[in-house]
């Protein structure tokens, strides 16, 4: 009896110890999973902040290019804008060092930093040239310097965009980890789904900041170049219409009535282009006074139909213009490809030539009227 009792006690003790060990192991598993969840959540938040920072870097880099052009134009017209020059100094220093009032991080991308260093040196040359011009020097070198800086800011923006896209890819991989953690933590699965939806929504919003001009609400040059690059890598099927647009007399309006009036013209035309183009395909601002449309499954008949609709809408908008210089005038030219028979560079060139032919005809017609 004693031996039997001892056996029962021993088994009870072993069972209790096994039960305690199982419970302890389960507790540690939960702790490890919670820690893993917290680490992934922290990384996700850090990643979103990184995307925000990269998006701001792209925005301010583009601002430097446009603001530099504005400073140069004003100096060539004998208008001093020392406040904008000071702002550009602060912006460039901020992007180089991370110091400033706009909470912009230092983008750890070698190509971007190389372009930014080049931009900083070019800006110093521009400032020196401005001071020389104010003493009476010719403006020819100043214009050349500004063009070089504008091109380098575009290249810097592309480099920053590439950095951000790779960053977004890392976030996607992180989110896969999030799914795994949430699957193990069944009670937090719903929370994970909500968080993932928010992150995706925020990523879309940030991509919109990077790809769309916040002032006119249409795809910017970076997005246009990306679409063109996609067609270079993957040939199109069926018809592809490439349409180029050019706003007439935008420079004259800027010079005579100010950039606010010119910006209003750009915004109004962008709205009209987006309104009509939405059902056809991609439209964007290609830079300055040029706009671009890329329409798949769009033959010559549809391309002409689109341009006619746009002309009618702009004509109706012009009726509401209070002043003559607020009326929009534009030239449009197109090129059509079929099943990849023409590369995208050729279509762009043909559309550009077609647009300038239309522009010349409009000028000739205007001269005849006079």
What does this structure look like?
It is a single chain. The protein has 370 residues and is of the alpha+beta class. Helix content is 73%, strand content 8%. The chain has ten helices and four strands. The protein has helices at residues 2-76, 82-97, 110-134, 140-184, 189-211, 221-233, 250-257, 259-277, 300-319, 344-369, and strands at 239-247, 282-287, 290-296, 330-338. Strands 2-3-1-4 form a four-stranded antiparallel sheet, with helices on both faces. Strand 2 (282-287) and strand 3 form a beta hairpin. Helix 1 runs antiparallel to helix 4. It is globular and about 95 Å long. The N and C termini lie far apart (126 Å).
How is this structure best summarized?
This protein has 370 residues and is of the alpha+beta class. It has helices spanning 2-76, 82-97, 110-134, 140-184, 189-211, 221-233, 250-257, 259-277, 300-319, 344-369; strands at 239-247, 282-287, 290-296, 330-338.
The helix tally amounts to: 10
Q: Percent of residues in beta strands?
A: 5-15%
Radius of gyration: 29 Å
Cα(first) to Cα(last) distance is: 126 Å
What best-fitting shape do the alpha-carbon axes yield?
globular
**Structural class category:** alpha+beta
| Major sheet | 4 strands, antiparallel
- The string of secondary-structure elements, in order, is HHHHHHEHHEEHEH
Spans of at least 5 consecutive residues whose pLDDT stays below 50 are: 1-16
Number of strand elements = 4
Q: What is the percent of helical residues?
A: over 70%
Q: Within the largest sheet, what's the order of strands?
A: 2-3-1-4
Oligomer: single chain
Average pLDDT metric: 77
